[in-house]
Prior knowledge:
The structure holds two protein chains of two kinds. Chain A is an alpha/beta fold. Chain A has two domains: 10-98 and 178-282, P-loop containing nucleotide triphosphate hydrolases (Rossmann fold); 112-177, no CATH class. Helix content of chain A is 28%, strand content 23%. Chain A contains nine helices and twelve strands. In chain A, the strands form two sheets. An eight-stranded mixed β-sheet of chain A has the order 6-7-8-3-9-10-12-11, with helices on both faces. In chain A, strands 2-1-4-5 form a four-stranded antiparallel β-sheet. The relative contact order of chain A is 0.13. The model of chain A has no long low-confidence stretch (mean pLDDT 89). In chain B, helix 2 crosses helix 4 (72-107). Chain B is flat, with a radius of gyration of 22 Å.
Amino acid sequence: MSAAAPPPVLAVEGLRKHFPIERGLxxxxxxxxxxxxxxxxxxxxxxTLCLVGESGCGKSTVGKLILRFLxxxxxxxxxxxxxxxxxxxQAMRGYRxxxxxxxxxxxxxxNPRLTAGTIVGEPLENxxxxxxxxxxxxxxxxxxxxGLRADAxxxxxxxxxxxxxxxxxxxxxxxxxxxxxxxxEPVSALDVSVQAQVLNLMADLQDExxxxxxxxxxxxxxxxxxxxxxxxxxxxxxxxxxxxEALFAAPLHPYTQALIDAAPLPDPHxxxxxxxxxxxxxxxxxxxxxxxxxxxxxxxxxRCRTEEPALRETAxxxxxxxxxxxxxxxxxxxx
Amino acid sequence: xxxxxxxxxxxxAFARRHPTIAVGGALLLSMAxxxxxxxxIAGDPRHMTPSDRLQAPSARYxxxxxxxxxxxxxxxxxxxxxxxxxxxxxxxxSVAAGLAIGLVAGYYRxxxxxxxxxxxxxxxxxxxxxxxxxxxxxxASVGIxxxxxxxxxxxxxxxxxxxxxLTVRERPFVEAAxxxxxxxxxxxxxxxxxxxxxxxxxxxxYIMASxxxxxxxxxxxxxxxxxxxxTWGNMIASSRLFLARAPWTIFFPGACLALVILxxxxxGDGLRDRLDPRLARRM
Lengths: 335, 283
């Protein structure tokens, strides 16, 4: 590694979150939901890592662990070189200004009883050390930057459209000048026409402020437009991680291949070879032994049922957790 | 906007849309008004005129007289003061205490068990027995009666507030406030407390109705306010021996008691419908 390479603004190492299932009078943990199991990645300044996977795979939990809304079972979250998982509540509050969140639901994540000015100004009350007048100026400037008019400050959330509300959510995250923004499905609740506007705004802000994004999404169509790198998650584990273009051009893990094949094409006449997987995601309470994907994988061999594949680098910048890719092959798998 | 006919029209429109609140509120307000001006419209409730014992209602004694020759109208009107004062004070005290405990128990989960188990224990004791015990341990006074009735009401308020806090604290905007670096106290006061107001107002009206009834029952049993203060409860108690000969001595305080409870419940039901967001379509 060259000395010039700056450390990543956000690094996650061996992150795990197991929720105990408590039963009986004594509330003894009889089993654990392995929502997040040994997830590691890093995000550099000014770049976006997209975390994709189907619902229930643990991608939102990763976001909540980074924000410390949940306490990780194991692993580290390093923010600007500081491990924040062991900080007490007081110290953590100080680090919150460096990592902010944009929430999925722009309706539920804004307090309906507060004005936009109060909502966007709340982080400044806690971190800014500003006088009220200074705070109002800063809020007005950020609202203008996300494309809202100055009179928005006195309005209540119900007076805004869905896209405007998400702009408010972005403004709230932006107002304390964080270095990392975790965006949990920030456009999935919006109309397609509005999605593009919000995505463009996020991209502009990234260029301007050198923000690092962790962009959590289930929508590969959206991911294709925003990310630099993509990490694919299945049942609490990362199965593949690569540069966006490389991943879309040649997905290595059969699950990634199936996800890309499942995304609709805008051309109704286009035909393509599809890898279709069947069945449901197995329960994370008792994940299948071996590779967690083997129950739905059309290419599974006997080894997949017993031995869990590790996430390893098969080509520069490409990580995949699949026994069939140990040889470094890149060609599409075919049954 | 400030024109008097404008206000009257607004009030009329409100009454048409929420007849229960309007009727109950009007009843309650007129009773409160009568109670407030009692010393000027009614005579001395303690003055005895032995020669006029057990007189039927007449132009001189609107509600008749009781077995000691006291004016039932004066006593009924003065009794309204005790009933309404006790009802309002109990509602205010139990809501204040219950709100504070409920917010803490719902938000600071570590304290939940420590706060809620005593509350459950309190709920297991019949309210009127607890009130009698509290009153008999102390010298009879209106303050003690208010405290004795308020204490058993607190657990129900706590349960209500705690339930609201437990649902609201999981809403994303509370998580967003945590992410904004806000402390617990600010989150509770700014983001959670406002959601408890609507159900609390409704609950407060029911507590008021029940407190008025419990006060009357305590007075009837002789465990309430000092006997020299006229209340509807002790009026009914002292007159029950003469029920057959002088039914008016019981009818008027009893009817007033029923009317107040009806009025409070009408307001409570109306507010519940008005404040319930699921029924808000009528607004």
